[in-house]
Each structure stands twice: as C-alpha cells, then as structure tokens.
Amino acid sequence: MCETCGCTITSGNKQHAHAIHANSGKDTIEVLTDLLDVNDRQAAHNREHFDAHGVLAINLMSSPGAGKTSLLEATIRNLDKNLRIAVIEGDLETENDAERIRSCGVPAVQITTGTACHLDAHLVHDALHGMDLDEIDVLFIENVGNLVCPASFDLGQHLNVTLLSTTEGDDKPAKYPVMFRESDLVLLTKTDLLQALQGDFDPDKAEKAVRTIGNAAPVFLVSSRLAESLDPWLGWLGEQMSMRPSLHLSRTG
Amino acid sequence: MHELAICQALLSQVEEIAQQNRAVRVTRIDLKIGPLSGVVPVLLQRTFLVARHGTLAEEAVLATEEMPPRVRCQGCGMESVVPTNKLLCPNCGDYHTTLLGGDELILASLELQTEDSSYEPLPASADFVEEHRDV
C-alpha cells in the first residue's frame, strides 16, 4: 500500500504512481456512482416496460442443472391457465431450452451469451423486442446457470427466485451468499431424490443457511415430477401476481 | 468472470467523466467495494491492467477500498460489522437484519490530469508486463 495516499501500489506501478503524486495540474473529483450505473439504468428502463404492460418479471437463478427449465415446464403445466406465461432463456449456447418451453405452448426467446457467464439488462432488453408484452402476465427470465455472476446484474426483474437442488450441498447459501441473500424465494428442487440421497441433503440445514445470511424469504421444497409438491410455489406466484398494483390497473383500465 | 464486464463498465464511465472535465488522462481511480457486491477487488485489479489499454485511464492507479458488511438488527436495533456469510445479529442471533453496508460497488472519485506539461509517463509496455507479473 502506498504510504502517501493509501492506494494499491505494486512494485510494477510504484515508480509511476509516485511520479503522479509529485505532479501538479491534477484535479480530484468526487463521483459516487455505481459501477454498474449503465446496466442499472437499462434495468430500470426494462422494469418500466414491464410495469407499463402489467408484466410480473421473475429472474430464475441457480447453478447449472438445478432444474430451472424442468421447473418452468412443470409450472406451465400446472399454473392457472388464465395466466399468460412467457420465458426468456439464457444459455451460453444452443436453442434447446427455448424449444423445450415452446413445445409446452408458451412463447420463448433464447439469448445465447457465447462465453458470457450472466445475463445483463441490455441482453434482456434486446430479447424483449421479440415479445409482445401486452400478451404476457408473467415473464420468467431463466438466467445462465451460475451461482456467482448473475447476482451482480439487475435485469429489471421484480423478483429473484433461486433454486438449490438436493443433489448439491445444503450449505450452498453459505458458500454463495451474494445470490442467496438477494433471493425473494428459495426453492429446494428435486426433492423426489431425497430418499435416494440417504440424508446427504438436509432441507432444514439448507433453510438455516439461508437464514444465516440474513434472508427471511420463504424456502419451499418442490419436485418438478410431483405436481402436488408445486402447490406452495404456485400459490406464491399467485400472491405475487395479486400484489402487483399495476396489474390491476392494466386489467381494469 | 464478470469482473471484465464490470471493468469495461467502469472504464466507459471513467472516460466519459474525464472527457466532460477535459482531462488529458486519468491518474487515479478510487472505488469502494463490499464483498456482497459479488465483485472480488483483486480480480478487478488484474482485469483493469488489461482493460485499461487504449483508454484515458491507461496509466491510472486503481485503488479499491473494501467496505465490510454491516447490519442493523430489526429486533434489538444493534448495528454490527459481520462476516460476509453470517449476516445474523451477533447480539441476539435474529436473522431479521437490514444490510447497512458491504454491497457497495461505487466509483468514489477520480484524479484527472488537466494539463500535460509536467507529466513524464513510464513506457506503457514495461509498466504493464511488470505489474501483470507482480499482482
């Protein structure tokens, strides 16, 4: 650390840094904006779009293979048929997940990020151009499977839902606190496997790990293979829909 | 590795501000980063060494101040500095806490060179190689 100013100096930039300090003609200006200001502004713009059209936008996040797409397929099969669903799928490559959703009779736009490990607000905005928001009540944005990077980028969603599958460790919320702390709902998925796992995954421990990072969000156990297990999740979705004031406005207006 | 995306966002913001202030170069960038932002300062530093090339911040020092997680208990009202993955109230153990800090990802200030006369930069290539190896 530089003793002159406290900045991070390495042996490589030391001489250079002190040369700067010795110079005049410099101004220090206070900025105090978020580094992701541009993304955040785009996210706010997306949210305005959603609100103007009465769309509830939900960002689904998890590690790869936790069952996001399977959960969406099961949700489409079991959710109130009067609710119009659409899906944005985020993956590095392939159109596979969007095709799975379309085969359930629901519109889906695939975003392929190439090598990028997360969706951002601009990618989502581009995807919105391929959708008619007037025809949508709930938009699920299935983020790239990754418990790290997606947590840092606001997409304009109203709610974050994070999945943790029973084949992962029940301590994952402690390992990935950034994402799990920001979750409005945590779904423990693939609970049909709990018996086969012989106690390796303890749902109570998983819930305790969510509480330990200061998150009071509901934690539900679901299996996309067991329709009745989805009831708490579907009930929660219904509650969120009814709590959206702009929805009432758009429906009665 | 979302630090590259964040670094590019930082640099475009820095360049915009530098141009608005008619600066010839940026000499120092000060950030405040909390661990709950999901950004690792050392990775951002390394990424910056690559991403800054060809920008007005090509020779800037990037300084990161780490902001510790702080919570206020909704039960007992105690304010505490806590570990990143243990955001409980250390006083009463309640998990109903409000985060007061630790999720910052803030461009705090910039130091801008506004006149060119007294500045003698090191050769950029040597600077980069040395720093990159060292960090």
Describe this structure in words.
The complex is a heterodimer of chains A (253) and B (135). In chain A, helix 2 runs parallel beside helix 5 (121-128). In chain A, helix 8 links the parallel strand 7 and strand 8 (219-221). By secondary structure, chain A is of the alpha/beta class. Chain A is built from 10 helices and 8 strands. Chain A is globular and about 70 Å long. Chain B folds into 2 domains: 1-66 and 103-126, hypothetical protein PF0899 fold, CATH 3.30.2320; 68-101. In chain B, the strands form 2 sheets. In chain B, strands 2-1-6 form a 3-stranded mixed beta sheet, covered by helices on one side. Chain B is elongated, with a radius of gyration of 19 Å. Chain B starts with a helix and ends with a helix. Chains A and B meet through helix 1, strand 1, helix 2 and helix 7 of A and helix 1, strand 1, strand 2, strand 6 and helix 3 of B. Strand 1 (26-34) of chain A pairs antiparallel with strand 6 (105-113) of chain B, so a sheet runs across the interface.
Unreliable sequence segments of chain A: 1-22, 248-253
Q: Per DSSP, what share of the residues of chain A sits in E-state strands of 2 or more residues?
A: 15-25%
Distance between the termini of chain B: 17 Å
Mean pLDDT of chain A: 89
Q: What characteristics describe this protein?
A:
heterodimer; A: 253 residues; alpha/beta; Rossmann fold; seven-stranded parallel β-sheet; 8 strands; 36% helix; 19% strand; globular; disordered N terminus; B: 135 residues; alpha+beta; hypothetical protein PF0899 fold; 2 domains; three-stranded mixed β-sheet; three-stranded antiparallel β-sheet
Summed up:
By secondary structure, chain A is an alpha/beta fold. Chain A has helices at 14-22, 37-52, 68-78, 96-102, 121-128, 172-175, 177-181, 203-212, 231-242, 245-252, and strands spanning 26-34, 56-61, 85-91, 108-112, 138-142, 159-165, 185-189, 219-221.
